[in-house]
Specification:
alpha+beta, 2 domains, three-stranded antiparallel β-sheet, 2 helices, 3 strands
Length: 112
């Protein structure tokens, strides 16, 4: 076997046309797969950017809109499992840009 390998290495004969065609086919397939991966990656990045922009626009809309003045009841569950309800005057903000309606509130500052 060693002698066959040595003969092959010393040989001046070139590659056959079928070997060259198979090597080119493998190279083309590899480049096609690389192009498909890059295209898919670019598509995912664009969708991600669009989703993040929608999120940021929704947050910005939530921050700049006028607040309604409501009194709401806030329920808090303690670590022991008991429930405490408290009423507070708050400014209530509503945003419907996201898939679910988002509410935010800010407790009104007392004058005293």
């Amino acid at each position: 076997m060693k002698t066959k390998l040595m003969k092959r290495l010393r040989s001046r004969a070139g590659e056959s046309i079928s070997e060259v065609l198979i090597a080119m086919l493998i190279s083309v397939l590899a480049l096609t797969m690389l192009a498909a991966m890059l295209s898919s990656t670019v598509s995912m990045v664009e969708r991600s950017k669009a989703t993040m922009n929608l999120y940021y626009e929704g947050n910005e809309a939530l921050e700049v809109q006028e607040a309604s003045e409501d009194t709401v009841t806030v329920s808090v569950k303690t670590s022991s499992g008991s429930k405490v309800n408290a009423a507070a005057d708050v400014n209530l903000y509503k945003n419907e840009v996201f898939h679910n309606t988002v509410y935010a509130y800010q407790i009104k500052k007392s004058d005293g």
